[in-house]
Amino acid sequence: MTRILGISGSLRKASFNSGLLRAAAGVMPEGAELDARGIEGVPLFDADVEADEGVPPAVAALKDALAACDGLLLVSPEYNNGIPGVFKNAIDWMSRPPGGTGLFKGKPVAVIGASPGGFGTILSQAHWLPVLRTLGTRQWAEGRLMVSRAGNMFDAQGNLTDEETRKRLSEFLAGFVAFARG
Ligand code: FNR
User: Is 77 in the pocket of ligand 1 (CB under 6 A)?
Assistant: First the structure.
């Protein structure tokens, strides 16, 4: 079984990106499973908190899931043409000891995202590249999934309703899982 850890970088209840991640769980290729997670409960990174209290429980759970997975799928919103701070904050926590960047090293990674605009998170996806380079991950770049006009693709609860997008998601995941299997 190939295990993919998927993390949505939005805290919003009806998030398009969390909805995209839920939809991904339904179209995983055979022999692969998705461990879909969020960043709820991850505090703002503070080195004093880290020194005094260690790794927060929400971060420890994400780190354990990262250690156990064969590939990492980041489902990233775009804020001001970049990575949302809350998502970067969660990854920053995960990159700290124990394990540190070693948990990410060599890990197959793909980034997808959804936004109401016309460019579907293209700039935040590009913004992740120097971060992933620093973490030493293996980025999968053959496929691309940018869900634009998300207001028309998801219902009011953030569930994906557009079948063409589901098909694109399924094809994307087939490619990424094949890459993660090496
Ligand atoms: C946005 N949004 C946005 N969208 C986009 O495509 N490009 C952008 O640069 C921005 N900038 C931006 C800044 C800030 C501060 C906010 C709050 C929002 C809109 C964003 O894509 C929209 O709120 C999505 O719904 C966020 O994703 P979730 O929460 O639905 O997953």
Answer: yes
Query: What's the domain range around 97?
Result: 2-181
Tokens 């899982």 map to which residue?
177
How far is residue 20's CA from residue 141's CA, in Å, rounded to a whole number? Answer: 19
pLDDT band at 127 (very low <50, low <70, confident <90, very high): very high
Give the Cα-Cα-Cα angle 114, 158, 115 (nearest 5 degrees): 20
Number of neighbouring beta carbons within 10 Å of residue 147: 25
Residue nearest to atom 1 of ligand 1 (CA): 79
Counted residue by residue, the chain has a size of 182
The number of domains in the chain is 1
Q: How far is the CA of 69 from the centre of ligand 1 (A)?
A: 28
What φ, ψ does residue 27 adopt, rounded to 5°? Answer: -125, 30
Pocket mutation for ligand 1, best pick of 13, 115, 147 (most atoms within 8 Å of C-beta): 115
CATH number of the domain that residue 34 is part of: 3.40.50.360
pLDDT of residue 137: 98
